[in-house]
Amino acid sequence: MIMITGGAYQGKTQFAVSEYGCKITDGKCCEIDSVFTAECVKNYHLLVKRLLENGENPVEFTERLCRENPSLIVIMDEIGGGIIPLEKSERIWRETVGKAGCIIAENSEKVIRMICGIPHILKGQKK
């Protein structure tokens, strides 16, 4: 598993395509179970939101995903910085995305943080 994270619009998807040549599945709108067979899923943070809205447990889902699709490339925005949201549902989403990110990072052989289009290797080796 490979995790690519960073702020919004930092070049995460472009990096994944150029570095790994992968087909992208969008967590914002894909069939939820399609990530179990996907090469790469972007917007994982939005998939977490959809799972919460559907009453599903995103932490259990993420653990299952790591077991069943260990070669997946996961792209997700860092959403934990900045002002704490007033809406309880937004705080729960933000916390759950953080938990899911920790699970993915733990199960990834490589974790990359993108800043201004520049990849920073947090875990694992360069190619």
Explain what you see:
This protein is of the alpha/beta class and 127 residues long. The protein has a single domain (2-123), classed as P-loop containing nucleotide triphosphate hydrolases (Rossmann fold), CATH 3.40.50. Helices cover 39% and strands 22% of the residues. The chain is built from 4 helices and 6 strands. The chain has helices spanning 12-20, 44-53, 58-68, 88-107; strands spanning 2-6, 24-26, 40-42, 73-77, 110-115, 118-123. A 6-stranded mixed beta sheet has the order 2-3-4-1-5-6, sandwiched between helices. Strand 5 (110-115) and strand 6 (118-123) form a beta hairpin. Helix 2 packs across helix 4 and helix 3 (58-68) packs parallel to helix 4. The two termini are 14 Å apart. The model has no long low-confidence stretch (mean pLDDT 96).
What value does the average pLDDT take? 96
Strand order of the largest sheet: 2-3-4-1-5-6
Task: Assign a percent range to the helix content.
Answer: 25-40%
Number of helices: 4
Given this structure, which CATH class is correct? Alpha Beta
CATH architecture: 3-Layer(aba) Sandwich
For the biggest sheet, the summary is: 6 strands, mixed
